[in-house]
C-alpha cells in the first residue's frame, strides 16, 4: 500500500513544491486549499502529467468542519494518512506598526496560522494512531513555520507571534507523539520567492545584494520541498522536535 501525505496550502508556492516532491517520492497527495480546484488548473495538471495521484479538498485549516472533511476524504480515497505537512498560512492583510496593529488582524493570523495548525495536527494525529505503521515509524508531521518565529518584524508582529506559536506546537506534539512512533519536525524558511514575498521584492533584492544572507540568492520553494522530503524519509528515525533553517544562512550571527 502506498503512503499518503496531506499538504495544507499545497496548491501553490512552497506548498505546491512540497506536494510535487512528495508525489515524486511515491506518496499519494492530498491538497487542502481555500479556493476552487479550477483556480490551480495548471499546477494540478502538472501533478497528473508526472503520474502523481492526488485528491484536492477545498477548505481552510481555520474551520473545524474543513479539517474534518479533509481527513475523512483522504482516508476514504487512499485508506490512510502517513504524513501531514502544515504549510497553510497567511500574512497580515496590512503591514502595520506594532502600536497600530488591530485585534482583528491578530485574531485572523493567529486563528489560521497557529490555531489552525494546532487542531489540524490533532485530528490527523488521531487518525495516524488508528493505523498500522508502514515501515519503521507510524507517521511524520512537519510544520512549516518561518525565520519570523525568532526574528522580529515590528510591522507584522501578529505573523511573528503566530510562527513562534508553531515552534512550540512542534515541541509539544513531538513530546506527546514520540512514544506513539510519530515524529514531528519544524522547517523555518527564510526569504523564499513566492507570492507572499513578491510584494517586498525590492527590499529583499537589496538585502541579498548587501550581503545579509551568506548564501547570496533568493530561496526557492524547491529548497524547502527538498528538506521536507528528507524529513519524511526514514533517514531521521532518532530525531524529533527539532527545526531546520532553510534561509541561506540568515540565522548565523556575524560580526
Written description of the protein model:
With 255 residues, this protein is of the alpha/beta class. The chain has a single domain (4-246), classed as NAD(P)-binding Rossmann-like Domain (Rossmann fold, 3-Layer(aba) Sandwich), CATH 3.40.50.720. Helix content is 43%, strand content 15%. The chain is built from 8 helices and 7 strands; from the N terminus they run E-H-E-H-E-H-E-H-E-H-E-H-H-H-E. The protein has helices spanning 13-24, 41-49, 64-78, 103-129, 157-177, 195-198, 201-209, 221-232; strands at residues 4-8, 28-33, 54-58, 83-86, 139-144, 182-189, 243-246. It has a 7-stranded parallel β-sheet with strand order 3-2-1-4-5-6-7, with helices on both faces. Helix 4 runs parallel beside helix 5 (157-177). The model has no long low-confidence stretch (mean pLDDT 97).
- Contiguous runs where pLDDT drops below 50 for at least 5 residues: none
Number of helices: 8
Task: Indicate the multimeric state.
Answer: single chain
- Report the strand count: 7
**CATH level 1 class label:** Alpha Beta
What is the CATH topology?
Answer: Rossmann fold
CATH homologous superfamily identity: NAD(P)-binding Rossmann-like Domain
Radius of gyration: 18 Å
Mean pLDDT over the residues: 97
User: What proportion of the residues form beta strands (DSSP E)?
Assistant: 5-15%
Shape annotation: globular
Q: Key features?
A:
7 strands, seven-stranded parallel β-sheet, 255 residues, Rossmann fold, alpha/beta, 43% helix, globular
Please outline what is shown here.
By secondary structure, the protein is α/β, with parallel strands linked by helices. 43% of the residues lie in helices and 15% in strands.
Amino acid at each position: 500500500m502506498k503512503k499518503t501525505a496531506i499538504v495544507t496550502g499545497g496548491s501553490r508556492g512552497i506548498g505546491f513544491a512540497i506536494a510535487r516532491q512528495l508525489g515524486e517520492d511515491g506518496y499519494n497527495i492530498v491538497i487542502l486549499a481555500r479556493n476552487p480546484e479550477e483556480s490551480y488548473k495548471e499546477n494540478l495538471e502538472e501533478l497528473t502529467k508526472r503520474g502523481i495521484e492526488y485528491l484536492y479538498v477545498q477548505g481552510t485549516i481555520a474551520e473545524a468542519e474543513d479539517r474534518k472533511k479533509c481527513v475523512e476524504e483522504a482516508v476514504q480515497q487512499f485508506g490512510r494518512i502517513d504524513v501531514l505537512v502544515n504549510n497553510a498560512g497567511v500574512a497580515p492583510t496590512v503591514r502595520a506598526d506594532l502600536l497600530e496593529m488591530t485585534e482583528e488582524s491578530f485574531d485572523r493570523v493567529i486563528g489560521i496560522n497557529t490555531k489552525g495548525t494546532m487542531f489540524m495536527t490533532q485530528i490527523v494525529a488521531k487518525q495516524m494512531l488508528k493505523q498500522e505503521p508502514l515501515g519503521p515509524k507510524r507517521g511524520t508531521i512537519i510544520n512549516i513555520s518561518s525565520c519570523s518565529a525568532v526574528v522580529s518584524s515590528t510591522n507584522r508582529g501578529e505573523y511573528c507571534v503566530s510562527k513562534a506559536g508553531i515552534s512550540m506546537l512542534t515541541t509539544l506534539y513531538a513530546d506527546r507523539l514520540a512514544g506513539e512512533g510519530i515524529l514531528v519536525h519544524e522547517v523555518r524558511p527564510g526569504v523564499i520567492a513566492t507570492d507572499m514575498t513578491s510584494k517586498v521584492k525590492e527590499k529583499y533584492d537589496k538585502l541579498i545584494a548587501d550581503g545579509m544572507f551568506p548564501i547570496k540568492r533568493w530561496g526557492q520553494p524547491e529548497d524547502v520541498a527538498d528538506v521536507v522530503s528528507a524529513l519524511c524519509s526514514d533517514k531521521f528515525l532518532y530525531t524529533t522536535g527539532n527545526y531546520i533553517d532553510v534561509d541561506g544562512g540568515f540565522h548565523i550571527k556575524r560580526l
